[in-house]
Each structure stands twice: as structure tokens, then as C-alpha cells.
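Reopening closed ticket. The problem is back. First fold of the pair:
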Amino acid sequence: ELENEGLLQLHVEQNFDVENPNDYKRALKLALEARPATSPRRRIAGVKVYCDGSLGSESAWISKPYPGGGTGLQLMDKKLITEILSECWGNNFPVAIHTLGDAAVLFVVDNALELKSKGIQGKLHLEHVELASPETIKKNRFPGRIFPLVPYPPP
């Protein structure tokens, strides 16, 4: 209503997200249902899922063990990420994936590149990246990829 009356002064962009990547179909369903309400001031940004955790809790998925041991959490496997990317891109929705650790970033980039080689592609946002190897950053230089790095404050 506010938009129709010219009173909506802000722009809203929304990702539909789920904490458990296995529930991505719920987020995709909500995004599909919301798509008809898209307007110049309201936009569906896509679907967001989580591939790993955080550095502070040592749950970000990293390639080398934390000082206390372990390499964090891998919240999805190859089958699941392939399914998520294929279905979301097939419905013309970008996918945002929470990837803090270098192993999570490499896993997502490699799987997206594999799908691209099969003609399946779309926009991919790697969210909250804190660790990534120079090789992974170079691999990620292809159209449709958004790779915002999170600045880490000095001690």
C-alpha cells in the first residue's frame, strides 16, 4: 500500500534463508511465492544457505586444524550444494552462501565451476569470507560471482 501511495521511501532487498542447508527448499518456495510482489522498491535477492560456522567458535571450515584441533563444520556435501545451486539457478534466483573458512570457499567455488562446465550457472554470492587462498580467489574470477571479503580488524 505504501508503495502504491508513493509513501515508501526505502528500497528493500531480501534473501530468503535457512540455517540448515537441507531446508533450502523452504527458502526457495518462499522466494518463488514472493516473486510476484517484486517492484522497483522491493526485490527478491535470492536464497541464502550456510556452508560453515564462525571463526570465534572454531566452526568455520578451514583447511588446517585450529590450535585446539579440528577443522570446523562442513554443513553441506557435494550432492546438496549441487542440488541447491541447480534448483535456485534453474528458477533464476541468485544463491548467497555463508563461507567464512578457506575450505568452505574452495568447496563452493569448485562446485560452482563444475556446474558451470555443464552449462548450469547463475549468480553466486560468497558471504562473510574471512579466509581464502590466492588460488581460490583467482578461480572465482568468472561472471556472476560476487566475492565480498570481510575486513578483519587488527588486534
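Second fold of the pair, where the issue appears:
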Amino acid sequence: AFTRKNWDSMLKPTPQQFGQLRTYGLSKLANVLFADGLTMCFSKAGKKAKAVSLHPGVINTPIFQRAGWKIRLMTQILTPVVWTLYKTPQQGAQTTLECALCPFNSLTPGAFYSNCGVATKSRAVTRDNILSFMRESTQLASQITSHPFQYLLIN
């Protein structure tokens, strides 16, 4: 299984480590790990709050027009093949709206949602990875802001 003990390449990438596709993928993984970490924090503190992460789908927007040449080229090549998978912005908002507006009891804490339902998470989302990600991102946030984020640490 995938294990990350040191998140420096994600949280503080060097110019050599910073690639657009890699960074995009890591940012999505960070969202899932953080939502799972918050779920653990809420549970530990006895809070009735819930945190989830979601994937809205591949949205047909002009966002890639400002991307690097590799991504623009890939988009131009793949668009004729995968255009049927694209969602409109309105369609892409549905999973977010579902999670935000559904009855509290029907939302699964720590779940990953896609297409308005619970979906399978990456194999990289393990308890060890959640704990190490929360520890390192909390330390980084504390250094940057001079504010102790100790309530985000999970034992």
C-alpha cells in the first residue's frame, strides 16, 4: 500500500517537484486526507459536525486555456474522445449541492462523494497517511501563521 511519511514534496514542493498534473493530483489527495482528518478530530472532540470530500466530475470550462502547453495539448487531443464525459458547470455543481443540502443524517462522515453518491477513495487514503498528513500540515500552518493548530492533531 502507498505510504507517505514525509509530505514535504506536497506541502513545500521545490521547483523541480512542482509539475501541474502531479500538483493537481496531490491537491485532490490533500482534500480527501484533510476531510478524513477533520472527521477524526470531530469524533475525538465529541462534535456532531461532519466533513466530506467530493469530486464534481470533469467540468467543461475554459480553465485549461491558462494551463501549461502540455495540459492544453492533452486537452485538445482528448476532448474529441472524452467530450461525452464532460459535465456542464450546472451538472458539476450537483454533488456539491447534494452534500451541502442533504439531511444531516444522510451524509456519511469522512466519505468521498462523486455523482451525488459515496464513491471509492484512493488506496493512498489510509489511517497512517491521514495522521501524518494532518500532523505535517498542522505544523506548517502553525509556522506560517504563528497560531497553534493543536486541535487538528489526532493521536
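Update: turned out to be a display glitch only; the data is intact. DSSP finds six helices and three strands in the chain. The helical segments are 8-11, 20-44, 69-82, 89-92, 94-101, 127-145. Please close again.
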